[in-house]
Structures are given as structure tokens and as C-alpha cells.
Amino acid sequence: MNQNPHLRPTKTAVLLLNLGTPSAPTPKAVRVYLKEFLSDPRVVEIPRIIWWFILNGIILPIRSSQSAKKYASIWLPQLGSPLMHYSRLQAKELGEKFANEGHTVLVDLAMRYGKPSTQEALESLKEQGMERLLLLPLYPQYSATTTASSFDEVFRVLSTWRSQPELRSVKYYHDNPAYISALRDQVISAWDKDGYPDFARGDRFVMSFHGLPKRNLMKGDPYHCECLKTGRLLGESLGLESGQYIVTFQSRFGKAEWLKPYTAPTIEKLAKEGCQRLDIFCPGFPADCLETLEEIAMEAKEIFLDHGGNDYRYIPCLNSNPKWIEALGDIAYQHLLGWNLGTESKEELAQRATRADVAEKSIT
């Protein structure tokens, strides 16, 4: 019976999908990562021949060393990449949540670029008997550059399999109540931790999301609208008036117009206008990474202080906040409805073995 792949216990799996990270904060490792990332036509929609020369002749030689220094500034001692550390922790704790609630659900993590690759994660789940698969991106707001690209890679791998699993995917959860509640809890916890009563919170609350070229919006990508809705719902849940918070977009690259307002110029403008205390949070990043820890917690802080600001406070991402793990579970359960979340009993396996034996004899 053990030799027949059809007679193994079948299991349900949840695969968390994230963007990826270099394996080390070195120019060589960063170059490998950037080349894979920036070669994705979902990320850069420039004719391939033109982009090949720009990427290999200009960007990679210059940016690899610059980015490596930035990665080195946020690398965690003995833990490595923050994004990898927190993403793995989220997968581990989500798996433990299922187990504690009496379910047998496999949970793993796949990075779109770098390791663990999508193929490695899928092959591992397959070896463990996965027959039902839920794709759960760690991108709350949908974009073709992130969610769709990760789905593309899953579909590419599965296209090589003879026996594919049942498949479901979570497109977005930017307005999911459990997600918004987890964001609120993260912000409130930061405020309470520092002993900030209501009247002493920042003069302005900035929510910074990763930017995209404006043309993506014009072509129908819903990311911009979903970010604005997340920002509005979070602001309302915190009891803030519309003038007390602002949604901005960071990480602009190149000369093309991107989604506005841009984070860095907005922070500079607020400081020049007399804003003394500023709180900043990145709701679209479930795990801290280069874009949050270096670009927002370090670079943006320097901009604010250099232009007249006094108190700049970066609020960490959701990371392993228990309410975030609960939210991931809630989102997963919504999409797992109707699937077996346990392991087949010995009696069920025995019945399958008997049926298989009968079928095999009828063929021979």
C-alpha cells in the first residue's frame, strides 16, 4: 500500500507567498536577487531587449553595492534577513494555530525571488501528501507586480506536474476586518508602549505603502484604490479625523511618474510646515524589510529631523503580532471552507486500499 501514491493520506496545505530577499547582505548576493526580481516582466513593463541592456549595463553594476550596504544596516544578528525571519515565523505560528485548533493543515512559505523558491516549497508539500492547496499572499493589497507574479510562478510549477492539487487563491484582504483590527492593535500597542496618551500622539500619522508607476493604475491595477481604502479604514478604527492622517507611497524608482503623494517629500514638507511629532506606519508590509527598516525607519527619519521635525516614531510592521496570526487564520479559514482539514483515518485508508486492489485486479 505504501508504494501506491494514491493511497497516502491526503492533506490540505496553505502556502504563504512573499516577495523575497537576498541570501546575504553582500554585493554578489544582492546582484543575484535583483537580477531575478527586476527581470520579471510583471515588475518592469519595458520591452525586454531595451531593459536587458539597462538592467545589466547600468542598474546591477551600480545598485548591487549600494543596496548591499543598506541590507547590511538592517540585517539581524544570527537571524539574517528580517523579511525572511518574520515570514518564516508567521508560517510557523499559523501552522501552530491550526494544530492547536485540532486541524491537520500543512503550512509553508515560498518566496517569489530567491529562497525558499516556489518550486521548493511546492515539492516539499507534495512529498507530505498535499492534495488541496490554498495560496495566501503576504500582500494585503493586490497588484499584478506582486500577487499576480507569485501566482504566475505557482502556476508555472504546477504546469509541470502530472497530478495537480485542488487549488484556491486569496486575491486580496485589504479591507478584511481581522486585518484592519491587527493593524490597529499594532499601532495602539506602539502608542501605549511609549506612554503616549491621546493628546500626545504624533501631530500627523503617515501610512506609507510601497509605490508603483502611475501607468499601472491607468492600466487597471487596483492596488492604489486598495491602499487608500486600507488607510481610510485604519484611520477610522484609530478614531482619527481625515486631516490627522495621510496615505503616501514610497520606493519610487526611475523618472516615470509614480503613485502620489511620495513619502519622502511629504515628510519633508510636514517638517517645514511645523509638524513636530510624526508617527509613521507601513500597513502594506506584514513583515519588516529593507523598505521599512532602512528607507522609512532610517532615511525618512533623517529627512524629518533635518527639516525641522523633532519627534519621529516608526511603528514596526505586524511581524509576529498575535492578532496578525489570528487574522491570517481567519482569512485562511474563509477560503478553506468545505475542505477536509484533518487526516484520513486508518479505516478510510483501508477502504481506499481495498478499492484500489479491486480496481488493479480488474485491469490485470
From TrEMBL:
<dbReference type="GO" id="GO:0046872">
    <property type="term" value="F:metal ion binding"/>
</dbReference>
<dbReference type="GO" id="GO:0005737">
    <property type="term" value="C:cytoplasm"/>
</dbReference>
<dbReference type="GO" id="GO:0006783">
    <property type="term" value="P:heme biosynthetic process"/>
</dbReference>
<dbReference type="InterPro" id="IPR033644">
    <property type="entry name" value="Ferrochelatase_C"/>
</dbReference>
<keyword id="KW-0456">Lyase</keyword>
<keyword id="KW-0963">Cytoplasm</keyword>
<feature type="binding site">
    <location>
        <position position="291"/>
    </location>
    <ligand>
        <name>Fe(2+)</name>
    </ligand>
</feature>
<protein>
    <recommendedName>
        <fullName>Ferrochelatase</fullName>
        <ecNumber>4.98.1.1</ecNumber>
    </recommendedName>
</protein>
<comment type="pathway">
    <text>Porphyrin-containing compound metabolism; protoheme biosynthesis; protoheme from protoporphyrin-IX: step 1/1.</text>
</comment>
<dbReference type="GO" id="GO:0004325">
    <property type="term" value="F:ferrochelatase activity"/>
</dbReference>
<keyword id="KW-0627">Porphyrin biosynthesis</keyword>
<keyword id="KW-0408">Iron</keyword>
<comment type="similarity">
    <text>Belongs to the ferrochelatase family.</text>
</comment>
<dbReference type="Pfam" id="PF00762">
    <property type="entry name" value="Ferrochelatase"/>
</dbReference>
<feature type="binding site">
    <location>
        <position position="210"/>
    </location>
    <ligand>
        <name>Fe(2+)</name>
    </ligand>
</feature>
<keyword id="KW-0350">Heme biosynthesis</keyword>
<dbReference type="InterPro" id="IPR001015">
    <property type="entry name" value="Ferrochelatase"/>
</dbReference>
<keyword id="KW-0479">Metal-binding</keyword>
<dbReference type="InterPro" id="IPR033659">
    <property type="entry name" value="Ferrochelatase_N"/>
</dbReference>
<comment type="function">
    <text>Catalyzes the ferrous insertion into protoporphyrin IX.</text>
</comment>
